[in-house]
Amino acid sequence: MQRSSFFPPHEGFPLIRLAEIIGAVLSDESFGEIMVFSLSPIQRAVKGDISYVVSRKFLDKIEMCKASAIICSSDVMPFIPRHIPCLLSDNPDLAFAVAGSLLYPKAMRLQPVSGLKEGISPRAFVEKDVKLEKDIIIEPMATIGSGVEIGSGTYIGPGSVVGSGVKIGRNCSIGANVSIFSSFIGNDVILHAGARIGSDGFGYARSASKIHKIVQIGRVIIQDKVEIGANSTIDRGTMDDTIIGEGTKIDNQVQIGHNVHIGMKCIIISLVGIAGSTRIGDNVLIAGQCGIVGHINIGDGVQIAAKSGVVRDLPAGKKYGGFPARPIGEHLRDMASILSQSNKRYQEKMKEDNGQ
């Protein structure tokens, strides 16, 4: 596979310096002046690349590896060819993440599409009373409404719409075709292409003759260092606020309903739906395709397995799975029992069909 031209290699780090920055130990300091410029998987790595091995099950192609170094744990190092220096870390995932941010700094933030280096494109529309700090980029076809405030170092991508009165903090990256209404955005926030922030919450009341819309006059509050994936949607509150806590990371195509409060440093993976007024604590992990009903509480540190359906409060610090979501051990035992019974019935049916 040809090298990507989208993210060119770095000018390089000597291994001894890179190890120091990422908190790793170089396996042999005689390799300290070897330069690395880019990341690459084991099977494609060449001289100047650094690769990453998280466990022994990924070592099937290691003998063919031509990388200049490998990030791994001390448990994996004995299986690495001796001519390849190792950067040893107790947390290889974190070491790899930090190395990537150093070698590819431009990949850590959205980059201008039009080639605009600074300022406002003449093809953008910006109301006269907008307050802009320095070093802002606003791309073509973006629309910035009345009373908006945008902090220094923030980038607004092409075709994005920032509604009246919205406040966006410093060093934010707002991707292409994002819409933001009735929202306050903190510092160092990333909103990927197509994200919809602050649209109407889904609220209706029935009568005998029709369905009546319930007014949605709340806000969305996104705190510092939040990242929200492409085409995810976060509804504004009915009368209260929808809040996304500091450092939380949200994948693509996630729906968050009105008045939801999500704590700090949560991870929410794609295709999750969270209904209105649910409260989620800090450091919660919600795996893909989970559905969460409204008006419940999920405690700090909870982990929810993929495709789970959460219909009641979940106490802090535990793992849950299944539908309805229950403690993960109970869920796995139930699944094993169902599979065993299904297999037994299948075998009985096969015997019947064969006339036994």
TrEMBL record:
Gene Ontology MF annotations: N-acyltransferase activity; UDP-3-O-[(3R)-3-hydroxyacyl]-glucosamine N-acyltransferase activity
Its EC number(s): 2.3.1.191
GO BP annotations listed: lipid A biosynthetic process
UniProt domain UDP-3-O-[3-hydroxymyristoyl] glucosamine N-acyltransferase non-repeat region: residue ranges: 35-99
Keyword Manganese: no
Reactions performed catalytically: a UDP-3-O-[(3R)-3-hydroxyacyl]-alpha-D-glucosamine + a (3R)-hydroxyacyl-[ACP] = a UDP-2-N,3-O-bis[(3R)-3-hydroxyacyl]-alpha-D-glucosamine + holo-[ACP] + H(+)
Positions annotated as active site in the UniProt record: H258 (proton acceptor)
Pathway: Bacterial outer membrane biogenesis; LPS lipid A biosynthesis
Pfam families assigned to the protein according to its UniProt record, in alphabetical order: Hexapep, Hexapep_2, LpxD
SUPFAM superfamilies: Trimeric LpxA-like enzymes
Entry keywords, A to Z: Acyltransferase, Lipid A biosynthesis, Lipid biosynthesis, Lipid metabolism, Repeat, Transferase
GO CC terms in record: membrane
Annotated InterPro entries: Hexapep, LpxD, Trimer_LpxA-like_sf, UDP_GlcNAc_AcTrfase_non-rep
Family: Belongs to the transferase hexapeptide repeat family. LpxD subfamily.
Primary role: Catalyzes the N-acylation of UDP-3-O-acylglucosamine using 3-hydroxyacyl-ACP as the acyl donor. Is involved in the biosynthesis of lipid A, a phosphorylated glycolipid that anchors the lipopolysaccharide to the outer membrane of the cell.
Assembly information from the UniProt record: Homotrimer.
HAMAP family hit by this protein: LpxD
PANTHER family, alphabetized: UDP-3-O-ACYLGLUCOSAMINE N-ACYLTRANSFERASE, UDP-3-O-ACYLGLUCOSAMINE N-ACYLTRANSFERASE 1, MITOCHONDRIAL-RELATED
Identification of the protein by name: UDP-3-O-acylglucosamine N-acyltransferase
Organism from which the protein derives: Candidatus Liberibacter ctenarytainae
